[in-house]
Amino acid sequence: MEGSTTETTTTTGLGTVAPPPPEFEKSTSMHVLLAIDDSDESFNALQWLLDKILKRPHAGEDDNRVVTIVHVVEPLPHYAFPGGYGTYPVVESMNKSQEQNAARILSKAYEICREKSVKAKTLILEGDPKDKICRAVEEMNIDLLVVGSRGLGQIKRLCFTGSKTFDLILFYLQQQEDEEMLVPDLVEGPQPLVEGPQPLVEGPQPMEVAPSDNAGAVENQASDEPQASRFTWTIENFSRMNTKKLYSEVFVVGGYKWRVLIFPKGNNVDFLSMYLDVADSANLPYGWNRYAQFSLAIVNHMNSKYTIKKDTQHQFNQRESDWGFTSFMPLNELYDPNKGYLVNDTCVVEADVAVRKVIDYWTYDSKKETGYVGLKNQGATCYMNSLLQTLYHIPYFRKAVYHMPTTENDNPTGSIPLALQSLFYKLQYNDTSVATKELTKSFGWDTYDSFMQHDVQELNRVLCEKLEDKMKGTVVEGTIQKLFEGHHMNYIECINVDFKSTRKESFYDLQLDVKGCKDVYASFDKYVEVERLEGDNKYHAEQHGLQDAKKGVLFIDFPPVLQLQLKRFEYDFMRDTMVKINDRYEFPLELDLDRDNGKYLSPDADRSVRNLYMLHSVLVHSGGVHGGHYYAYIRPTLSDQWYKFDDERVTKEDVKRALEEQYGGEEELPQTNPGYNNTPFKFTKYSNAYMLVYIRVSDKDKIICDVDEKDIAEHLRIRLKKEQEEKEDKRRYKAQAHLYTIIKVARDEDMKEQIGKDIYFDLVDHDKVRNFRIQKQIPFNLFKEDVAKELGIPVQFQRFWIWAKRQNHTYRPNRPLTPNEETQTVGQLREVSNKAHNAELKLFLEVEHGQDLHPVPPPEKNKDDILLFFKLYNPEKEELRYVGRLFVKSSGKPIEILTKLNEMAGFAPDEEIELFEEIKFEPTVMCERLDKRASFRFSQVFTKRPPTASDEKLRFPDVPSFLEYVKNRQIVHFRALERPKEDEFSLELAKNHTYDDVVEKVAQRLGLDDASKIRLTPHNCYSQQPKPNPIKYRSVDHLIDMLVHYNQISDILYYEVLDIPLPELQCLKTLKVAFHHATKDEAVILNIRLPKQSTVGDVLNDIKTKVELSHPSAELRLLEVFYHKIYKIFPINEKIENINDQYWTLRAEEQVQNFGEPFFLVIHDGETLADVKLRIQKKLQVPDEEFSKWKFAFLSLGRPEYLEDSDIVSSRFQRRDVYGAWEQYLGLEHSDTTPKRAYSASQNRHTFEKPVKIYN
Question: Keywords, A to Z (predicted)?
Fold first, then answer.
């Protein structure tokens, strides 16, 4: 097993874990599904989940916390395995390396859970991650799905469409700075392994763990030229060694000291254990780390091809200073003298080590190091960042963007030109990385779009088309065409007659084949390759009939800026999926498209234009077909200096990193030390060029032009400089915060303003009162002078009180500051008054006014004086207001101040009033009537008009009933479920309203007589979408139960008006079924509603009454179809209650199936393919001419075996009844004539796919 020598059950290098969102409350009873990969962020998510969400129960409580940890493995494409692309082997399942790596990841997660005493189950799933997670969610009764794997970001689109009720956290969205997502798209670098007992993993248990295939990803955090070396260690008398472990001598690679560590008898296993160790780890400074790719080998003396070699990569640090293989090779093989590993009792160990230095991401200053700044990542926008950097560094394009007309009244979030101008300006003049949120908002994107990785090529086209449209009618009209537009000629020329057809077309970029091409020139050769139209494929020429012809493409002209899109992603028809082509593909620094006497040019091309290009930028994709990371290598001035733009970080790079290392294929590290085994140290590269930008040499000076402030509109400069100054002020404010104290001063005026409007309980909201930012060393007496200037209250008339939180959680001014305290500094006073040690000091400013309303000195306060505050409630108007404060003696009685209270309230002196004491308001309201003859001590008093005979007409005749109403009052915004973003109406309800109360109110508002036809659906506060499941009839007690989402209360509900009462509907099951007619092309979508106890047979009978059949006696069947494959035929007697139609398509069909869809066919024993073909042709009604071109193959696990007409078809198929996609098919290979849009990187095409769109 790969890992460290030590057993460790705690996580390492997790960094700062983000706080949980406020709506998630710790729970001791929760089933969580956690999707992880081998990145640090995944284990951050697990640690965060255990620390912040799953609370350890108290003694005596049941512990019902369960975490199911899932790792999804995508089978690697054919090119990653021995045999290479030439033999084109097809991989039908994950290989051993992937399986072992998955077990390693889950082992670590399992140990972390075990240490936290949380029940954990682990599961390896194989296939497309998003589809597999969806299915897992559907089959498990989970409460919460946590996505800790960036590759699963798109799961966010799926979680609201299922039939299960659960909540979702995308862990990456929790990490923010300045309201901008700063999360890298791909967490890069090798990950540590925690050894120890293996978790329960479904599938075969691995003996060892080979390295994960992320060598390409590691490149993103390593820099400088790799330094490599081979170390050979010869160990004599090997079998007679009694030591448990043995170190080699120290060797140096990359300036670092290394050594090999072996356990001759195994590290508690029956295998030789071998590791690479940092030799001087004990003496290195705190926080050290280094990264190495390495292989370890035991040489076979008899035959070098039997040498055992394993390779991996690791970032070594203080916690993990050694890394390698616990189960390197079985001891019985090593010590067998006939195997050749020990000859003359001598063992030879080889270590190939390649070292790259690692950049410290957190302290690195891109502007200082390179002169350029990066772009912040909003979650999954690296593809956009790499494109924007490329466009920005085409100065002619940047200048044109600056010259697009905008005004000072434009809003960047609503204007693409202004947002792009703003972004480019900040890239040019900022000192730190730039946010892209304004730009994406101007696109009309929401958080979903920002977290959905798209294809950079697709975005490039959409953005350029949008800018081209925005530039029309302006001084920069036509810029996009001038820069990027070229033209080619499609021609068909007859061979035997004089006829030629041509068509001129424009292009902004060229799609070049990678597969089967060694370099760009080979792709251009293929692009202009002549196709012969002959035989059955003759061309129909006007007036000449069918003719043999030549078909091809030639270029009329190339643009000044040539964008080449490399077709790294292709559809594999044999495997019915997208694959990434990682083959080696070279591209030159100088591209000569006039080569070979202009063989790419049409006869109409202007030969005076020299089509010699210089490479300007290389956009790189690192990862696989379902996700990955984009970054760009650019040389902004076309000098020899290249730069890597990787989201926020910009680094200097040499030409080798920008070119050769982005060719793809395999990387081979050089040999520097001869040894017994001279096999090169190789690893497959999954980072490779995806888009190339070339600039024509003759246009270089025009395109790489100077762009300075005079090109930027004055209003834009003013606006952006002001933004920059405000940002700098904010930064400076934060940096100096520790030197200041915020003093919040509440006054009578604040209470008059707030009580009865913003607040009803307590006295004041301190966040809405006047605050002062005062240096801590300033004496408080000087602060009083500032207050005098600001508020116009002389110092001698000011008396400040300290607020205190009482046992009932209410806040009151507790005592005045003493003269001695007022001589202290503001900082000292804050420390005395504030036990929480925050930066705030809350004070109440007491100011007394004379009869002329001018301030007067505050009255003397004795020890038995109490300051009381009074509110007046008016039951007729249902109003509460603040009326003032009084000093009373603690031994006094309320009856003594009734006259004064009437005066404060504006009543007659002898008006009868009632007094109430406000005691508490959380978790319930407590407000008690006061005995007017009782003591004042500790009382808080309310006043009101006395009860009258008309009380029964008042909704809230007294203070307690009014406060109870305020406490429970809830404004609810109702939205129609089919329009979930639009508020339809609002109702004032009470949180303690029953289910019947709520639906009755909604029915009244809608003018509906039968309230039972109202169905409500709760709101997900996190996603801002309706929850998947509606509220069942009378399944909740009160309105608050409908609104609560963990510990956050929503104010939104969604409603539907049903055609039948909800109690009746709940006894029915509704299924969405696609009906396929035997002879018609289009499917009919039906909504079938039947009692839950109905069977599939009942469904089919109901369908027969709603559709036109090909003939009255036609038989139907119900199928489950997903991703173009039939998963199940439903038995006629199966109950429909448990059938799910949320993720999978339910299809009802007659015996004949439409063209282009999978279908069933009965094959008889002994029937030949020729017989079967006749029946298939008849069923599908395919013409003879077309059908003669079809090929037939037996497919097992995706691998085709082509059949001859004489083959017995039935002998190929096994007879078995299984659930799951059929693993055996009769495949029909023919041309696909249905229109399709090309698939592109990082896009999994299924029901929930969304293309790139810019809406504004």
Answer: Hydrolase, Protease, Thiol protease, Ubl conjugation pathway
